[in-house]
Amino acid sequence: MPNVMTLLLVEDSKQQSQKLTAILEFVAQGAVSVTDSENVLGRLGEKFEAILLGNCDTSENLTRIYNAIQELDEAPPVLLLISNGDEKSLIKDVVQGAFAMLNLPMRYAEVSDALHRAQVFNLGRQQSGGGVNLDLFRSLVGNSRSIIEVRKLIEKVAESDATVLILGESGTGKEVVARNLHYHSVRRDKPFVPINCGAIPGELLESELFGHEKGAFTGAVTARRGRFEMAEGGTLFLDEIGDMPMAMQVKLLRVLQERTYERLGGNKEITANVRIVAATHQNLEELISEGKFREDLYYRLNVFPIEMPPLRDRMEDVPLLVNELIARMEHEKRGSVRFTPACMIALCQYRWPGNVRELSNLLERMVIMYPYGVVDVADLPTKFKPSGNSSDLPAMNFDQHLASNADLQTSRLPRDGLDLKEHISTVECSLIKQALEEADGVVAHAAKRLKMRRTTLVEKLRKYGLQRSETMTGI
Fold this sequence. Notes:
The structure is a single chain. By secondary structure, this protein is α/β, with parallel strands linked by helices. Among the domains are: about 130 residues, 3-Layer(aba) Sandwich (Rossmann fold); about 180 residues, Rossmann fold, CATH 3.40.50.300. The protein is about 40% helix and about 10% strand. The protein is built from 18 helices and 14 strands. The strands form four sheets. The protein has a five-stranded parallel beta sheet, sandwiched between helices. Strands 7-8-11-6-12 form a five-stranded parallel beta sheet. Strand 3, helix 2 and strand 4 form a beta-alpha-beta unit. Helix 12 crosses helix 14. The two termini are about 25 Å apart. The C terminus is likely disordered.
């Protein structure tokens, strides 16, 4: 795990709680608080990064505890611990609402992955200000400078009524930004109405935007509200505004200037109380120079521009995006998949012309092809595989903790099985040796690299018989 975690285990069986505590302390590298179903409510005021619900005696107890957790201002992720067949006896709402379910006996990779995703969840809540719908931020996940700047801009402009122009390539998540702007505005309780200006023929676009009266044209057998009326009090999202015909641009400009419009075939002025958010993948300034877009409309729309970076410019975010997109598929019961470290590096070296949408499509394909399996480089479609000598490829700079997490959770299980305890010890010993080498044998520095206490590392060195190394210092 990347950081020490604070966990609460709820378990009525003392024997089982001791076993689970030992495993969780090893994986989370920190102390685990333990309580039972009778006393847990008194512990919910404390700060925990995740709560694990085990045997709570009855399903009614489990439901009561789960509901109490959900009533907290910032409810931590809830992980359900279930034995084979137990899921059928659990309350449906608890199963569907749980952050993750862990089968007993625990498997290291599953526990490590669930705790890592809980950390990602908590990090996302901190970065988005807390108490938000994190599903809206799926495409905005990342630690790159560019995506952090986008989140800051959203935070600054969301509460105002300023018109926002979102720029960026297809698939970068422009509609995600628009929905976030609406969600965090004072208009959040009113409709968010999107319309793709490039997907509707020009002769129908006016009716779609402003509505029409009965008999306005052939086939108009009844009056119909337009998108402006549907979005009254809320937000109207004009996607692909660069594809809007010139004739419609004039009419849209009038609405933006006067805040009134008329239905097609009507003569009654309707006031437009909507916030306009527009988006395009095109260069509007070039379209202006080519005479394809009105300059006055451009300046009306470009009050507060937000530019979404292409995925190739924030490659360090790919592992985190993969984790988030897979977590969403798991939550929607659409399956899951894991990637080997080599495969993750290959994904980080691909240029992603389709951006986050292309990444999401690939993950869905891999879930179908290798359900709950582990995907290696050889399993990827040809275009995603690195070409040439891997040493010639650019070095990736994504977070060490994501890479190390992938190492732990994506190892292939040999056909004949393995001794898990021995395997984990081998991996741990190897990582300790690497940390010591990188720290020039200074134990304190190695402990910092491994994000553990120096005294804990000293104990592990003794356990593996490494304390005799002449290159080690600081013991």
